[in-house]
## 1
Amino acid sequence: MKIAFFDTKSYDQEVFEPKLKAAKFRYKFYDTRLNEDDVILAKGCDAVCVFVNDVVNSTVIDQLSELGVKIIALRCAGFNNVDFKYAEQKGITVVRVPAYSPYAVAEHAIALLMTSTRKIHKSYIRTRDFNFSLQGLTGFDLYGKTVGVIGTGKIGRVFIDICKGFGMKIIAYDKFPADIPGVEYKPLDTIYREADIISFHCPLTDDTLHMFNFGTLGKIKPGVVIINTSRGALIDAEALLEGIKTKKIGAACLDVYEEESGYFYEDLSGSIIDDDTLSRLISMPNVIVTSHQAFLTREALENIATTTVQNIKQITSGEECANIVK
Ligand code: NAI
């Protein structure tokens, strides 16, 4: 078994290497992303291991198939970047890591929310310059506010538990509602109308693409805080920017961005960014952007590596694997 790892950073390599050696798997780590141009790097490999911004469309899958690749192992939960139905047709098994630490992502969403509502990003910079003024730093209590949670799966539920601790009222929307104590399910439009804070925790699918759009701007409560730690394209970035510019949106906390591929995970501090929407959003005082880092805890990395290696072992040895994407 030889595996080509795409889009890897040192923190991936450090955690994967001992587990791959223990499993007696051969491997190659590439920092390049898997795409139509670089798929040739998988030559001689039985499996590829990919992350959120690798492009695994039908063209790439055709080439992987020609190279003899039998497994596409996602080292993440979301699989919107993989044409898994086409892979299945070509006899390639797609596996993923459905849960590695919902706490990591939910806690990051809360970290962004509190940074935003208490303006910690501003005060951190001020006090480093010995500016101890409080002018413009007035925040608001989370206690008693209504939070709308869109997607009440593993991450959404941890997020809800934390919000309960703050004494917030919780309303939710999910295509498949569950029975969660203290949570009232409502239609999506009602969530938009009633929530002071809206946090997205559902997957990106045809149904959820741009579920926040220009039409949503006419429904939201003025001053609403939008949090997205799920997938960028749930939100139409142009509509979000319009909402910020017209002050309908009070603040945005984004760990993901619709067009993040090509920017996120790279040091572009010396470059000219040609995405005007991203540049404008980042320049806003009430927008906080992190670079798809919500998953990045020690615990999550350990779990990702353990499950990915186990997924590949199970497929190659013909054992049942619960993490096949079907
Ligand atoms: P999950 O599968 O446990 O929960 C997803 C929830 O969304 C489910 O309750 C499902 O019923 C609901 N849902 C499905 N379709 C929907 C629709 N059309 N409208 C409303 N709700 C719908 O997934 P989990 O683990 O909670 O992850 C959620 C998302 O978080 C993932 O899909 C992924 O995109 C994102 N994520 C982001 C990370 C980051 O680092 N920023 C890391 C891990 C996941």
Note: The mean pLDDT is 97.
## 2
Amino acid sequence: MRLDRVLANASVGSRTQVKNMVKKGRVCVNGEVVLAAGRAVDPNQDVITIDGEELAYSEHYYFMLHKPAGYISATEGRHDPTVLELVPDYKGLFPCGRLDKDTEGLLLIMNDGPLAHELLSPKKHVEKEYYVEHQSPLSKEDIKAIEKGVEYRDISYKGAKLHILDERSCTIVVQEGKYHEIKNIFLSLGNKVMYLKRIRMKNLILDETLKKGEYRPLSKEEIEDLKKLSI
Ligand code: URA
């Protein structure tokens, strides 16, 4: 893997920042100063230092993936490709939460089990915002029902915040994270989700510079913010 990518993946800085660090001679690989950011390194073998300090590989990795449709949110898939095929091959990575195979948008991929557990815990009320295209327009009653909470096939869904964009699209903010939550909310009203994209999780907004299938490491600030959770 390229040296600048290894450094950026370790959330040392943005790709531009780490390129500058390399240019300034602050980065050594196996004891030798490396001035080419594109130099191939093996993050599992080579000793990389920045200003003399060794890059810690045992650290956690955190990536924001723009999930495309067609990939399953799992670490292994029998017939379908998994989202892990779209990110670097670091040990222990898993998707933090689940988006359906046909859902697109923001998916966190990390190897920090305790943080994922916290982020997914219903007790932490982490907001998830989706952009939805639906089959039929929402009536005033439908909007009220979604805001109050609905039931579908004996499962209840707490009230969600809705923002109507036009006749057939809206954004919706939920906190629960139940299986097929948004699709089931619409099904409970006899409506149907035609397209679903997650655009935000907590304060983390999908980076629109990421094309479908692309990922980027989270910045230190973004990671710190994710860790600030209500009790
Ligand atoms: N709700 C759904 O119905 N599907 C998703 O992928 C995410 C939320």
Note: The first helix runs from residue 3 to 9.
